[in-house]
Amino acid sequence: MRVSVVFDTPQVRWTPDDHRHQMEQELAGAEPHEPEMEYQVAGALLERGHDVLLVGVHDDPRVVPDHCAAWKPDVVVNCAESFLGDGALDYVCATLLEACGHHYTGSSPLALQVTRDKAMSKKILAYHGIKVSPFVVYRTREKVTEAPPLTFPLIVKPLAADASAGIAHASVVDDVAALAERVAFVHERFRQPALVEQFISGRELYAGILGNDERLQILPLTELVFDKEKNEPEERIATQAAKWTDAYRKRRGIRTVFARPVSAVARERIEAACRAAGRALWLRDYARVDIRLTDDDEVWVLEANANPFISKGHEMANAAAKIGLSYQDFIEHIVQEALARAERDGTRMRSRMTA
Predict the structure, then answer these.
(1) DSSP-derived 3-state class of residue 15
(2) Which of 40, 61, 161, 254 shows the smallest number of beta carbons within 10 Å?
(3) Residue 104 pairs with which residues in a beta bridge?
């Protein structure tokens, strides 16, 4: 097939050939860092025999419709995580692909926007009977003047950040003064509202979702594990350092591993919550649901990620490998799911038009 891989890039005016050369360099190990996700995805597709066009978007979104109109791909793999360096604009490329009528992988612009707004997604999940932590939102410049109708301890997060940005040990607060200070920090540092949730103590689990509708699979669970002697219960949260800083993780005894066994009851509840969240938030092809599992097997959905990281060696790809999918199989599976979904949706649309 002809497959376009669309992604955000800091490089200005790079052509598809420029990105092809850079991909070859990175995949060959010529760079000191891990190959960029879009290059890993493109490399997997090339190994599967597909023709691949790399379309990097910096500050001119017109490159997406222009290149795709000229090349006429059978499907587009959407690897865009931001636009103009702003993660809140990750829906821009999906919107362009949608507007131009291309088949593309991943969730729709609406799902990307809704899941990024943690308060909106929590309201939707709660409406569908999925357990979410009680919360309030302090809009930008809105000050904390009294205790909210929640039970301390609370955790304070930016409303629409990702990758645990803005989450640190100081995010867990025990009184109004600390709450006011952390909310003000979020407002000043991130220029966005602050989400304040009741803190749920428990295991931090990540459930990858692969597929759609009746083909939906819940991948093996991964878990953020904390050394209990080095981390108090309120410190066992997915801070930015706990997720991304190797030296800190080693010092505090933090690992991301396949989850320790859970009870049959917990397993059933997790799968039910993931399937319900996928339907409620219109997640497509692949996604991730972040969960807190309490000691009494209660399942609380922290958030859903409609656009998770799919590089080799990370949570989603590792979970896919656990069920026998090589990295190439994993990426191919996502592409085939997107095509099958598009075919089913197209058939339904044609049926409605001819009814």
Answers:
(1) coil
(2) 61
(3) 76
List, in order of start, the domains of the chain with CATH numbers: 2-104 (no CATH), 134-198 (3.30.1490), 203-221+259-344 (3.30.470.20)
What number of CA atoms fall less than 13 Å from residue 71's CA on the CB side? 23
Side-chain half-sphere CA neighbours of 72 within 13 A: 0
pLDDT digit string, tens, across residues 320-347: 999 999 999 999 999 999 999 999 887 5
Interhelix angle for 63-71 vs 91-99, to 10°? 40
Q: Would strands 51-57 and 2-8 be described as parallel, antiparallel, or unpaired? A: parallel
Torsional class of 154: left (φ above 0), alpha (ψ -120 to 50), beta (otherwise)? beta
Structure tokens at 270: 């997790």
> Given the structure tokens 């990858």, which residue do they identify?
208
pLDDT tens digit sequence for 39-90: 999 999 999 999 999 999 999 999 999 999 999 999 999 999 999 999 999 9
Residues 28, 57 contacting (CB under 8 angstroms):
no
